[in-house]
Structures are given as structure tokens and as C-alpha cells.
Amino acid sequence: MAWQGVLHAYRDYLPFGKDVKPITLNEGNTPLIRAGRLAGVIAPGANLNLYLKYEGLNPTGSFKDRGMTAAITQAVHEGAKTVICASTGNTAASAAAYAARAGLRCLVLVPEGKIALGKLAASLAYGAEVISIDGSFDDALALVREIVRRHPIALVNSINPWRLEGQKTAAFEICDQLGGRAPDWLCLPVGNAGNITAYWMGYRQYGRGEPQLLGGQAAGAAPLVSGKVVAKPETIASAIRIGNPARWQQALQALDESGGIVTAVSDDDILESWRLLAQLEGIFVEPASATGVAALKQQIALGAIDPAGQSIVCVLTGHGLKDPDTAIAQAAPPRTLPASVEALEAYLTGQTS
Questions:
Q1: Tens-digit pLDDT profile for residues 272-300
Q2: pTM for the structure as a whole
Q3: Which of 337, 330, 334 has the alpha carbon at shortest distance from 351?
Q4: Backbone angles phi, psi at 60, to 5 degrees
Q5: SS3 318
Q6: Domains of the chain, with CATH numbers?
């Protein structure tokens, strides 16, 4: 049978009534890719079984679609006509797409100048009303939380419990793709902390084993690591540029129950892992998506994780085209040659500088 989205595939594990009609773009069913070359670089000689869960191949290019199909489905079921969210970009694009699919009005609040071009373009293309505020993501989230108290609007940020119900399906998929078992470690970026919370929910519910969790935060936006709110978070990894995560306590609980680790990695380390993913495995992600890989590389180097014979999954949360500006800025410019075979041959044989 053709894939029909996560709500159809895992309906028995989700709290929807039989009368609820899914609003879907056939999200989910993303590949789990074996990453042998990358494993050889971050853990040489360790026989590490490293896999990459490429969530950037969801319909709007990020993992957010798993949760959004559930949130919008429930909003429609409850009679909502308008949805709203605060976002650093991926939630905005996903909410806009699923709202369009459902015929709902969609408002998204984004921090001015802090949203990657690809995400803003998608939100506008889907017809969302994008409102840029002079403030941070945390300021935007405070605004939308208050406005839904005053008006009958559905809030579709990850504080909406239906978002987590959809996002936990990624844990189910990983177990299915690994032959019915959980990995030893699951490594992923942590921003608003909804995803790490949802994965843990999924593993505990599915009963195929429970991995240890490794959460990676950017050093300039690492409230879970420092134990305090970051008033002005700064990082090139825009998707996790969040100083006061909505699911802070739930994430800490998941990390504690799994015997996991949360750590901070520098922007330089994030970009190094971003390059390794592209140049060793042919997988193009937005910078934040490489944070789990950077965290794993760091923890192996520190001796906190023994990679020998381990099965480890790194979650890649968003596609590289979400943030084309960073990709262009980090890449070497194209080489210009005369339009002649002699010039090309000279370049190939190293006879030009």
C-alpha cells in the first residue's frame, strides 16, 4: 500500500478518534542512511554503525511536518479557522503548508532578521501572514501564547501536545528501519526541546528498546547546558537559536531517564560537521541539523561515548536549502576558466594555479 503519512501509518499509537480525518502531505517515511565514511572520521577503527535519519526530506523540508500534521488535524477537528505560531523558520513553513492544505488562515511571528531566507520564502509562498517582530523567538512565543488566550485561535507551536504526538512517530520509524529495535544512542539538535521530548515519548511507547539520548545545543544558545535562560541567543544555527525552550523540563527528564547527555558545541564545530555530512555522505542540511553530529564527535573525543560496535542514529532535522545564504557563504566560489578544452585540461592536470 502506498505511504499515506504518519497518522495513517501509526494510527494505533496515536490518540485520534476514528472519526478524525488526517490533514496530511504524506509526511514521514524518511530514509535512515548508513554513514560509513563519516563513522570512519569521527570514530576511526571503532566499527561504529552510524546512521543518519534525514528528516529534511519531509514535504516542507524539516521534521516539523510530523508534528504539524497532527496539530492541524486536531485543530480542524475542533473547528479552528485560524492557526498561529512563533518560529525561527521551520515551524512557520510547516504551519503555513498544512494550514493551506486545510484551508485555514495562518499567522506566523518571526524574529526580525533572524530567519533563514529559504524558510521565509516558503512561508510566504504558502500564503501565511508573516509578522516580523523586533525581538527574539522567545518574545514571539510569549506574544502568541497571550493572543490565543484572548482569541479563538489554535496555537501550533510545540507546546501544543498534538505536535509531540506526531513527532514521536520518527522514533517508531527508526525502530522499524533498524529491524525492530532502537539504536544504542540517538543524537539530535536541541532548540525548543520539543523534538527530544517527542522521541523519548515514542521510544518508551513503542516498546522496541530505549536509546540513550545525546542533545546538542549551540554554544551561544545553550540554556539546558548552562541551566539558565539565554537572554540574547546567538548562533549560525538559526533553527536552534532559542534561549528559553518551551519543553525545557520535559527534555531534562528525557535526558535523565535515558541516561543521556546534553552538551554545547561551537558554531565552528557545527559547520565542520555540516561540511562532513555534505562532502563525505552527500547529504546537504541546514547548519542546525549538523549539531547532533558535532555533539557526537565531541563526546567520542572526550571519551564520554564509547563508539565500539555501537548503533548510533543522528537526526538531521532540516534540508540545506532551508538556509542557502549560509551554504553560499561557507563555500568556495566557482572557478572561472576560458571556454576551451585546453584550459579545462590544464586545470584537470594541475597546470593552472
A1: 999 999 999 999 999 999 999 999 999 99
A2: 0.94
A3: 337
A4: -100, 10
A5: strand
A6: 6-61+163-330 (3.40.50.1100), 64-161 (3.40.50.1100)
